[in-house]
Amino acid sequence: MTPGDPVIALHAVGVRREGTVVLDDVDWSVRPGERWVILGPNGSGKTTLLTLAGARLWPSSGTVEILGSRLGKVDVRTLRPRISLVSGSVTRQLRADLPARDVVVSGRHGALETWWHTYSGEDWARADRLLEEAGVPAIGSRPFGVISEGERQHVLLARALMSGPELILLDEPAAGLDLGARERLVSRLGLLASDPTSPTMILVTHHCEEIPRAFTHAGLMRQGRLISSGSLDEVLTSSQVSACFDVPVTVGQRDGRWFSRAD
Question: Which of 17, 27, 127, 216 has its CA 20 to 30 A from that of 151?
Answer without folding.
Answer: 216
